[in-house]
Amino acid sequence: MNKEGNRYRKTRNLIKLEKSIAKLRSHINNIRKDYIHKMTTEIVKTKPSHIVIEDLNAKGMMKNQHLAKHIQQCNFYEIRWQLEYKCKWYNIELVMADRWYPSSKTCSSCGQIHKGLRLSDRWIKCDCGLNLDRDLNASINLAKLAS
Ligand SMILES: [Zn+2]
């Protein structure tokens, strides 16, 4: 409200700014979509027999604001959708890991489940001697699901 009691009116500059922000947003969105297209095409063109992806528990993860943003930015559903149809084109089996499968917490060497592993723990150390990056460990576990 201004001093006359009218609703705030947008200045010409503000309108201009809003337009350029909208343009930038759409530009960023296009870059992201283009990137996902290139990335998923690159993956299927290596002609693997199968691709395993994790059905993330997005609902539970949304409770964590940082993760919610991260998931949004990664456009997980866009990636999954693109992989789904591109795998069909190339006759690649797309395996969806169960969202409750503890891919990060399971030792890829001996199978022991490390229930105490937190999201902030980037490395998994196991009694069996395994000492590995958590994502690499999870990837090995997910790859096993397809074989
Ligand atoms: Zn182990």
Automatic annotation (TrEMBL):
UniProt protein name: Transposase
Taxonomic superkingdom: Bacteria
Family that this chain belongs to: In the C-terminal section; belongs to the transposase 35 family.
Domain Probable transposase IS891/IS1136/IS1341: 10-65
Record key words, sorted: DNA recombination, DNA-binding, Transposition
Domain Cas12f1-like TNB: 76-142
Organism: Kroppenstedtia guangzhouensis
NCBIfam families: guided_TnpB, IS200/IS605 family accessory protein TnpB-like domain
A Pfam family matched in the record: Cas12f1-like_TNB
